Amino acid sequence: MSEKKKGGLFGLFKKKESPKKEEIPAVETVEEQSPDEVTTESELTPIESEQKIAELVIEETTEVVQDISDFAEPNTIESDDIEPEVVEVKEATQELEQLSEQPQEQQQESTQEKPKKESFFSRLKSGLSKTRSQLTSGLADLVLGSKQIDDDLFEEIETQLLMADVGVAATRKIIDDLTDKAGRKELKDSAALMERLRELLSEIVTPCSNALQINKKPFVILMVGVNGVGKTTTIGKLAKKFQNEGKSVMLAAGDTFRAAAVEQLQVWGERNNVHVTAQHTGADSASVVFDALQAAQARNIDVLIADTAGRLHTKSNLMDELEKVVRVMQKLDPEAPHETMLVVDAGTGQNALNQAEHFHKAVGLSGISITKLDGTAKGGVVFALADKLSIPIRFIGVGEGIDDLRPFDSQDFIEALFSKE
């Protein structure tokens, strides 16, 4: 063992205490010397030699890592760039092979017609969920849960129909038919009774499922109804619908009594890029509609939709003003209006039936639009209107969206009511 090692730590401290001026420049000259003039290991102390070896190992390791990364980076770039392209080419080839096996007509049906139909039906089904829960689901619970078909069951069915606002007259017809069929043993079980209920409800609304036909030019639609039923909003949605069908549309702001009614209709006109004929608040409604019809005839417009002030069906003087609007329009076109459409809120229940009866006596209704079916369980009023008045139901509203006002289709309506959750 050398003398330095024998001294141990005390030997090192003694060595540091003795001043050695030559060692300080020696350390500085090591960094500046060329590789040929580097100090040999024999000239360094044991601690300095260990530090030197550690520095050399670190430098060599760093160089090796850099060399490896230089070779590794191009490989990773190539694999990232090439492999996704190969996968995409394979997937595209498989898709082309699958598409080539299907007929072109089937592709168009699956990508266009089917999604639209499913989307509309699901929306209709969702919009009628409250009415379905009150009417058809309630009937199903009664009928399918009953052990026998008797008078007690028919009384419960009658109560359920009246609660859903099907109406007294329509309900009486349904119960009489069921009683007659049961007396003749034609209803063998609860499933047959439920099916007969579906048939009876379908028979009531099917005659009123007539789409609106635009067969004049300009085709004049006079919109009537009480306040708050969504009449102006329905006008805006109808304007958009006719535009989508390629028809030119004009609006007449005939509601000159309600505050901001003209502005509301003008907003719909700007949104749909449709001209709105309007005058100041308080102007004569008949005068506004007359000017609008003149302009529509001059501009060769396809459809003119005239708004009117909301009025209570029990106020005779207001109903007389509505009759005046019709008389003034007929000075320009004896057949105008070609459609007098009543807008009712389904949530008003049997009151909607009373409104329809009074408006029909005053101006003669040719169509009905039922709004807000999605917000009420009183959708049974559709059957009451169809049974009592037999007036075509043109449109139903099952949501706030512009596409949620749709032509009434009795089969889709019944299917949505009787569909399972």
In short:
This protein has 421 residues and is of the alpha/beta class. The chain is built from 16 helices and 8 strands. Mean pLDDT is 79; it is low at 1-44, 61-90 and 99-118.
What is the element layout, followed by pairings?
Elements: H1 3-17, H2 23-32, H3 46-101, H4 104-127, H5 129-134, H6 136-144, H7 151-163, H8 168-183, H9 190-205, E1 219-224, H10 231-244, E2 249-252, H11 261-272, E3 275-277, H12 285-299, E4 303-306, H13 316-332, E5 339-345, H14 350-363, E6 367-371, H15 381-389, E7 393-397, E8 405-407, H16 410-418
Helix pairs in contact: 4-16, 6-7, 6-9, 7-8, 8-9, 9-16, 10-11, 12-13, 14-15
Q: Tell me the structural class.
A: alpha/beta
- Give, in spatial order, the strands making up the sheet with the most strands: 3-2-4-1-5-6-7-8
Query: Which CATH-level-2 architecture of the domain at 208-418?
Result: 3-Layer(aba) Sandwich
Query: Count of helical segments?
Result: 16
Largest sheet: 8 strands, mixed
Which CATH top level class of the domain at 208-418 fits? Alpha Beta
What do these coordinates show?
This protein is α/β, with parallel strands linked by helices and 421 residues long. The protein contains 16 helices and eight strands. It has helices at residues 3-17, 23-32, 46-101, 104-127, 129-134, 136-144, 151-163, 168-183, 190-205, 231-244, 261-272, 285-299, 316-332, 350-363, 381-389, 410-418; strands spanning 219-224, 249-252, 275-277, 303-306, 339-345, 367-371, 393-397, 405-407. The chain has an eight-stranded mixed sheet with strand order 3-2-4-1-5-6-7-8, with helices on both faces. The chain is elongated.
